[in-house]
Amino acid sequence: MPETGHGDPATGGFGPENLPYGVDERGRVVVAHGDDVIDLELAGDLGVDRRVWTSGSLNAFMSLGPDAWSGVREALRRRLSELPAAAVRRRDAVRLVLPVEIADYVDFYASREHATAMGRLLRPGTEPLPEAWTHLPIAYHGRSATVVVSGEDVPRPSGIRNSDGGPTYGPTRCLDVEVELGFVVGVGNRRGEPIPAERAGDHVFGAVLLNDWSARDVQAFEYRPLGPFLGKSFATSISPWVVPLSALEPWRVPGPLQDPPPARYLRTAEPRGIDVRLELVLNGTVLSSTTTAGLYWSMAQQLAHLTANGAATRTGELFATGTVSGSTPRSAGSLMELSSAGREMLVLEDGQKRTWLEDGDCVAIRGWCGDPGTSDWVSFGEVRGEVRPGPEEVVVR
Ligand code: MN
Question: How far is the CA of 270 from the centre of ligand 1 (A)?
Fold first, then answer.
């Protein structure tokens, strides 16, 4: 029986209640179980075409839809005690790659605490929440081609930053992170056929941890009026494990009261929230702890909004919550908030001081549901990335 009781979210929390999906270095679909991974192509008949397990990503499997997802999960659970030895490898011996061929990427702004804090920092003296914020889930469009898997380095990006001497091009001086949860679309919708909020579960395959790396000086100069662009599009890291939506169902929570009442297409009967605990770790020091339980806009509302105008979605699309921040100082999901836009120094356990990220810094986000170490907790593992110096400055003649 594989070990499932570790209290460390980076390694434990992969019991039979979880069974998250990933893709190994050979392009084969694997499932984490305890300290092992299971190669699904070698696990016996799971009720779907076996070719979906060797196609290099989860997309072929995800496109089969919710009946196939639950059928495979049930079949695999029944087989856990009788798997062929060839199907099982130790998890720490497997290198995982990007699990999804990312078809598109949108990042929402669902935390009221984060949106309010950012408004105060970026637009002091004005109303921090934009007028539309309580009426619809605000988002910006990200870049699917620069979504990377945990473990990939993040070169420091360059861009145009404004300062007292005027706008200049160069490496960002304000490199930041955003602690988020991402959702992966398994089955899209056709153009002209919006997804009702209460049908989101038929379309969303699962969830990942997500770090929306951000260059705050670049972002601050470019973002008005069309939103972030190069300040965000250089890197977005996701965890290698995709936790199935069904593994998150026991951790549903009501979510905060919505006032004003949302438009009809954004109303749902089910509990809107999910309680995923998140931790931001910089060079080994836990800088903040938060949860997705208090997010104002839910995953289902975000997908309903994304398609409400008839926009189509496809297998492999990624949409994220936006930075998850709570109401206490040590529950903010970005350095922008934790350091008050660089004005307050953060001190790490070994005495290092930071406002923004330096080259060589290692950032990890861990995530889980339930109490670590108990029999039914569900871990996302972690998403990790190290900052390295950027390429030489681009010279324009
Ligand atoms: Mn973000």
Answer: 26
- Whether 305 is catalytic is no
Q: Note down pLDDT in tens along the chain; length 397 residues.
A: 444 456 888 889 999 999 999 999 999 999 999 999 999 999 999 999 999 999 999 999 999 999 999 999 999 999 999 999 999 999 999 999 999 999 999 999 999 999 999 999 999 999 999 999 999 999 999 999 999 999 999 999 999 999 899 999 999 999 999 999 999 999 999 999 999 999 999 999 999 999 999 999 999 999 999 999 999 999 999 999 999 999 999 999 999 999 999 999 999 987 899 999 999 999 999 999 999 999 999 999 999 999 999 999 999 999 999 999 999 989 999 999 999 999 999 999 999 999 999 999 999 999 999 999 898 999 999 999 999 999 865 555 5
> Active site residue: 114, 135, 203, 305, which one?
114
**Parent domain of 249:** 105-388
Residue 3 lies inside a defined structural domain of this protein: no
In a domain, 334, yes or no: yes
Domain boundary among 62, 97, 132: 97
Total domains in the fold of the chain: 2
Ligand 1 mean position, distance from CA 180 (Å): 7
Q: Where are the beta strands (DSSP E) in 254-377?
A: 273-274, 277-282, 285-291, 318-320, 346-347, 353-354, 362-369
Give buried/exposed letters for 149-178 (b at 16+ CB in 10 A, else e): bbeeebebbbbebeeeeeeeeebbebbbbb
Judgement on whether residues 156 and 274 belong to the same structural domain of the protein: yes
